[in-house]
């Protein structure tokens, strides 16, 4: 099972986003953090920047909406060029309807959970999704330390995915680096958002390759992967 590495442009130079996107062209997706200073205490970028970024790179965009009223705004990010759109279940008024709308517009539908949000109440929603994002830090800022207490939640989520026989990607975001990615992969994650671990490296493209190699090696030995 292939590991996917999604560099987060939250750690990139915002004045050079087109160049920063090219610096990681070997990545699977480019992770775009959208923050509105309401759902999280930070403000980043919006639809116009996503439109420009989509024109500037061939790497598909993975938009993570840390915003209020995603039911209203998420479809616009699909129209702006995002290939995957993640909304937070804590902010969504009608998550099933929203996931179906994102899919109907041609993008992958993803749902994110903050660290304190359990996965179990949303088990029945999983078939409506293409990806589930487990936040491994509190959303809002890059460069935070990885929360090891999220590893059991990743494991439980992987068990639910396997229980229902779903082709559902399991993404982790927050503090993912060379020192934490193997633990995430062993627990069941297969899509990894990495910000400073990529853009803080001398060679971002090589950092992506190295992280993928680590994740794939850990996955190959993981019990959850061996069951497939």
Automatic annotation (TrEMBL):
Q: Name one GO biological process term.
A: pentose-phosphate shunt
> Which co-factors does it depend on?
Co(2+); Fe(2+); Zn(2+); Mn(2+)
Which PROSITE patterns is this protein grouped with?
Answer: RIBUL_P_3_EPIMER_1 (PS01085), RIBUL_P_3_EPIMER_2 (PS01086)
Q: Could you say which residues bind a divalent metal cation here?
A: 31, 33, 64, 173
| Active site location | 33, 173
Give the EC number. 5.1.3.1
Q: Which Gene3D superfamilies match?
A: Aldolase class I
**HAMAP family in the cross-refs:** RPE (MF_02227)
Regarding protein family, the annotation reads: Belongs to the ribulose-phosphate 3-epimerase family.
Q: Which NCBIfam families match?
A: PRK05581.1-4 (NF004076), rpe (TIGR01163)
Q: What is this protein called?
A: Ribulose-phosphate 3-epimerase
At the highest ranks, the source species' classification is:
Bacteria, Bacillati, Actinomycetota, Actinomycetes, Kitasatosporales
């Amino acid at each position: 099972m292939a590991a996917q590495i999604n560099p987060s442009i939250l750690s990139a130079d915002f004045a050079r986003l087109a160049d920063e996107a090219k610096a990681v062209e070997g990545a699977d997706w480019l992770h775009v953090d959208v923050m509105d200073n309401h759902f999280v205490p930070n403000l980043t970028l919006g639809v116009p920047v996503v439109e420009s970024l989509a024109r500037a790179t061939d790497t598909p965009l993975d938009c993570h909406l840390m915003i209020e009223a995603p039911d209203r705004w998420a479809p616009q990010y699909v129209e702006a060029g995002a290939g995957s759109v993640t909304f937070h279940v804590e902010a969504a008024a009608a998550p099933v309807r929203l996931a179906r709308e994102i899919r109907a517009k041609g993008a992958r539908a993803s749902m994110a959970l903050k660290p304190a949000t359990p996965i179990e109440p949303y088990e029945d929603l999983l078939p409506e999704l293409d990806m589930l994002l487990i936040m491994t830090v509190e959303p809002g800022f890059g460069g935070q330390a990885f929360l090891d207490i999220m590893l059991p939640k990743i494991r439980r989520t992987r068990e639910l995915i396997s229980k229902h026989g779903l082709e559902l990607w399991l993404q982790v975001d927050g503090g993912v680096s060379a020192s934490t990615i193997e633990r995430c992969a062993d627990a069941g994650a297969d899509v990894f958002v990495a910000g400073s671990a990529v853009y803080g490296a001398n060679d971002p493209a090589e950092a992506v390759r190295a992280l993928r190699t680590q994740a794939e090696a850990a996955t190959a030995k993981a019990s959850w992967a061996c069951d497939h």
